[in-house]
Specification:
Blueprint (H helix, E strand, L loop, with lengths): L1 E4 L4 E5 L6 E6 L42 E3 L2 E6 L2 E6 L5
Antiparallel strand pairs: 1-2, 2-3, 4-5, 5-6
């Protein structure tokens, strides 16, 4: 099994032999993490203080912020400011 995150705000598992998708989960949206994934909605207005240049919001987004680690039947990874632990078998 291969586990990875994508810039669209999802984390997924692929069959290492066939490349077939086994499961996919959407990560929690966090407005303070940029770029903001499309699944999390539009960025705040550019005039809101404390937010970076709106041009940084023009990518597809991304909140997976660290490599994954597999320990036993669990997969650990960071997404934004959250540490996730999911079951390797089904992503729950």
């Amino acid at each position: 099994m291969l586990y990875d995150g994508s810039w669209d705000g999802f984390f997924f598992a692929l069959d290492a032999q066939t490349g077939a998708l086994k499961w996919r989960i959407q990560l929690d949206c966090q407005a303070s993490i940029v770029p903001v994934p499309e699944v999390c909605g539009r960025p705040p207005p550019p005039w809101v203080s404390g937010f970076p240049d709106p041009a940084r919001f023009q990518t597809a987004g991304g909140i997976v912020t660290a490599s994954r680690a597999v320990v036993g039947d669990s997969v650990y990874f960071s997404g934004g400011k959250t540490l996730y632990r999911v079951r390797a078998a089904d992503g729950r």
